[in-house]
Prior knowledge:
Elements: H1 2-16, E1 24-26, E2 43-45, H2 53-65, E3 75-77, H3 87-100, H4 120-123, H5 126-133, E4 142-144, E5 158-161, E6 172-176, E7 184-189, E8 195-199, E9 212-218, E10 230-231, E11 234-235, E12 240-242, E13 248-250, E14 261-264, E15 272-275, E16 286-287, E17 300-303, E18 306-308, E19 314-315, E20 321-323, E21 330-336, E22 342-348, E23 354-358, H6 360-366, E24 373-378, E25 383-389, E26 394-398, E27 403-411
Parallel strand pairs: 1-2, 2-3
Antiparallel strand pairs: 4-21, 5-20, 6-7, 7-12, 8-9, 9-15, 10-11, 12-13, 14-15, 16-19, 17-18, 21-22, 22-27, 23-26, 24-25, 24-27
Amino acid sequence: xxxxxEYTTMQKAINETNSNILFSLCGWFNWYSALGQLxxxxxxxxxxxxxxxxxxxxxxxxxxxxxxxxxxxRWPDIDMIAGHxxxxxxxxxxxxxxxxxxxxxxxxxxxxxSASTLSMANxxxxxxxxxxxxxxxxxxYYNRVGSASLSPNGAxxxxxxxxxxxxxxxQWMFNTxxxxxxxxxxxxxxxxxxxxxxxxxxxxxxxxxxxxxxNLMPCGDIPEGTCCGKINGICxxxxxxxxxxxxxxxxxxxxxxxxxxxxxxxxxxxxxxxQARLNNTLPQQWQFPALASSENSxxxxxNSDKEIPLTxxxxxxxxxxxxAPSTSSTNIWVRWLSNGDAALLVVNNGNEPTQVxxxxxxxxxxxxxxNDTLAVRDAFNRQDKGNILVSQGLCTKLDINGSSAxxxxxxx
Length: 412
């Protein structure tokens, strides 16, 4: 709230100058994109710094949640290009920035060509720049085809989902860590074994901060410097307390009184955050109705002496449920262009080469019909790929770990 107030004050001061000034905000969380609805800022950092590929994937997921908040003069910032990843990863990073319209910033002295994996010719590619600079006439400007995340790491929970007891991604387990206090434990989902609900604390000082984001992280696998202390060998980042008033608090504080409430954001879809105080205007009460044994194929067993029932993770505000994200090693992204063309970005983040296809249903999502004929242009390599009939689909064989292709599709 303090940041929003201060940024709003700054925006008012900028407006009073009657000058054309770009106001770029830094907040590191996806819900900062909602400030555009308040007329504050034109671009916002919506994710973490990206010193490595895995951290960049966090921002890919943040961009997915900011889709409907992007529009004229409102752009997500997914951090600058590092320049030192693999060629495939840097190519995808540049292509992804072009598709989502994020600020195109390079993190090195461009006079030093050896500082970058790609040549400057790639970063000044007129066809990629044309996609990046185009102002679409429709909303949203971009979207992901389908909802599967490239990695569970950083993937945001799906909120306000109709409850489905048969959906493994909605079947949660509260794993108590102290037999003397059954209200303290970790939260895992049956659909993604080995992944825990956790509080992101990658910035120094956020262990006690307000409005910190929550997502999935590998259980117990928290890098040094981001773990907010441990209880019984488990980082506080992954420990939560079920309270008698149906609130859920995070055990981030060094004391045993957490005081930070798990809150469902009312603006950004899929955003769950920590509020350091009780806010009666936001959904902060949860219930965990147990699933009857007849509704499950098994009772999940943690230890030989402890059985953990499966439950829903349900908001008491509207009786909808939280759902863990589905994941895939491949993604397809689209950006609609002002002349009716579409930019299509396909990527493979898996460890094996694979074929990524935009089939008829994929094209239908974009807005093309089965009998449409499209001219396909490889924008990154500036090569014509011929014409295709939409009903036949478009398939691309991609290598591993971030290999991608960026196409411009034009109606014939």
